[in-house]
Here is the input.
Amino acid sequence: MEKAQAAGEGEKREPAPERKPVERRGKDRERDRERPRREERTERTERPRRDEHPDRERRPRRDEPRREDRGERRGTGTSAALEPGPGETKLWVNLGTADGLGPGSIATAMEDAGAPVGKLVRAELRPTFAYVFVAEEDSPGFEALNGKQHGGKTLRVEKSKPRSERDTTSTRPPPSPDAGPGEVKLWVNLGSDDGMDEAKLPATLESLGAPGGKVIKALTRPTYGYVYVPEGDAPGFEALNGKPHNDKPLKLERHRPRGQREERRPRHEALQDVPGQARLWVGLGRQEGLDEAGVTAALEAAGAPAGKVLRTDLRPTYAYVFVAEEDVEGFEATHGKPHGEGKTIKVERAKRK
Here is the structure.
């Protein structure tokens, strides 16, 4: 009975209406038509892969250093400041900051020795030597200084050669022997460049006050030498430390093997420039037994304006002095004036690196 009723009710039900397709609006229909065309366009304009153009160089990113910059940081590049410009010659000379010279005063020193006046283009100084750049036609006049004297030092001037063209057959001198029993080996900042040899070096030290006839043996190198003396006489030689020899203060110290030497001190951080102040390079330093106040006193004794030094940056062989711009001329006027025994004050504006 129930099955019959359910069957009858199913016949009475109306069939479900058919769904009509939804009409798309105008923009939708246009988008559907254009879609295959866009796909075809992207296939036609697809950019070629990088490996299909091996001759095209990849452009470096902004945060990526250029190839030549990376080479310089690895030490394979060459500083532009050390390369001669067009029509220039790069010369090596055995004068440096240890001789109390700066970029300007080295030109004066070479001119005093006979170099052409006003022909030095620029100079890059190191402690014991310098590179000077001159015009090619003026190079012979500078090379003619080779062998001449400067303050008791024999000048050496020669054309600088690239490392690949240097003579690799020459070898370094053999290591100096250690001191024997009861001996002391002393290092002296006088060498063959100062006109010394194994006989002249002991005679020079004795003329400055060292004990006579006590040097057992002497060895010379271009910029320094060694003297071997009895241990009991070593203090008499060390007492010469700081005494002047020509324009050069003596330095004597006991030789220490490489493994026993002190580690290199960190590089001195220079004082920053201040607006309204001028930085002056002065050829006076710690080797003259001066401190910051001593440099100021030496300049004032030579005629510089009193009480005008604002700051002092002291180094072993020179110093930077900061003064007001209006006081610069008064300090530059002390250039060439005497200081101590046989030393001349050198003052010039410091050049920016």
About this structure: Confidence is low (pLDDT under 50) at residues 63-78. The CA atoms of residues 92 and 131 lie 5 Å apart. The longest strand covers residues 88-93. The longest helix spans residues 26-44.
